[in-house]
Amino acid sequence: MAGIVTYVKESFEELKNHVSWPTWAEAQNLTVIVAVFSIIFSLAIWGVDTVLSKVVTLYFDWING
């Protein structure tokens, strides 16, 4: 149990004194970038899923004649 307490204390110490946090403006810009790429990526996955489902449907329609 003492090992866990030591780990948590050292983790908070690391976060307080050794991590460089972005400014508020940088955090906002990075959030917008992540949101935009998430939307683009989800649209790409949706497009591929749509195309592949149509291909599979056509294939099964073709083999069932």
From TrEMBL:
It is a single-pass membrane protein. The chain crosses the membrane at residues 30-48. It comes from the Bacteria. Pfam families: SecE. GO terms for cellular component: plasma membrane. Keywords: Cell membrane, Membrane, Protein transport, Translocation, Transmembrane, Transmembrane helix, Transport. GO terms for molecular function: protein transmembrane transporter activity. InterPro entries: SecE_bac, SecE_sf, Translocase_SecE/Sec61-g. GO terms for biological process: intracellular protein transmembrane transport; protein secretion; protein targeting; protein transport by the Sec complex. It is found in: Cell membrane; Membrane. Component of the Sec protein translocase complex. Heterotrimer consisting of SecY, SecE and SecG subunits. The heterotrimers can form oligomers, although 1 heterotrimer is thought to be able to translocate proteins. Interacts with the ribosome. Interacts with SecDF, and other proteins may be involved. Interacts with SecA. HAMAP family: SecE (MF_00422). Belongs to the SecE/SEC61-gamma family. Essential subunit of the Sec protein translocation channel SecYEG. Clamps together the 2 halves of SecY. May contact the channel plug during translocation. This is Protein translocase subunit SecE.
